[in-house]
Specification:
The protein has one helix spanning 96-99, and strands at residues 2-3, 12-15, 19-29, 37-44, 50-56, 60-63, 67-77, 80-85, 91-94, 111-117, 120-125, 129-137, 150-155, 160-164, 172-176, 182-185. By secondary structure, it is mainly β. Strands 1-6-2-3-4-5 form a 6-stranded antiparallel beta sheet, with no helix packed on it. Pathway: Protein biosynthesis; polypeptide chain elongation.
């Protein structure tokens, strides 16, 4: 158990009859009149749904002990993803539902963090950005460099993102794993 005064980003709470919610952001508010309260943005760990919830300051909330383990993506087995614990070398199979959007940025040998609760994987945490090679994109036309347009490009993972017109096939780009947006070129 913890109180709402102890909240931190990334903390996992057990609310609404055992559902797991991750704290995305929180803000302590002390109005001129009335009692203080904590305004939070919570993300359902299993469904990914984000909700705003307000707690009175000092309210007791149940925390879930989530084990975050350093893992390395080994290979894809059918639709499932197989990870290796970097300390014990144990293998862990994760379903596509659990992998969610992070599957779009996974390459074999990539390090990440897997959150585990009661021996079942909850979600995969990737770095804020990853570097991936453009597998295919339409060639740019001379003069495209000055316009602000974008075109679709397929990454080496098979995921498609929008890139500026001057990007060519085979280039390495940096991609934001939270939004799926192009960040910039990576100079080799």
């Amino acid at each position: 158990m913890a109180t709402t005064n102890d909240l931190k980003n990334g903390m996992v709470l057990k609310l609404d009859g055992g559902q797991l919610w991750s704290v995305v952001e929180f803000q302590h508010v002390k109005p001129g009149k009335g009692g203080a309260f904590v305004r939070t943005k919570l993300k359902n760990v299993l469904s990914g749904k984000v909700v705003d919830k307000t707690f009175n300051a000092g309210t007791k909330v149940e925390t879930a002990t989530v084990d975050r383990r350093g893992m390395q993506f080994s290979y894809k087995d059918g639709a499932d993803f197989v990870f290796m614990d970097t300390e014990t070398f144990d293998q862990l199979t994760i379903t596509p539902e659990t992998a969610g959007e992070t599957a779009n940025y996974l390459l074999e040998g990539q390090d990440c963090t897997v959150a585990i609760y009661e021996e079942s994987p909850l979600f995969i945490e990737l770095p804020a950005s990853v570097e991936l090679v453009i597998e295919y994109t339409e060639p740019g036309v001379q003069g495209d460099r000055s316009t602000g347009g974008t075109k679709p490009a397929r990454l080496e993972t098979g995921y498609e993102i929008a890139v500026p017109l001057f990007i060519t096939t085979g280039e390495k780009v940096k991609v934001d794993t939270r939004s799926g947006e192009y960040i910039g070129r990576v100079n080799s």
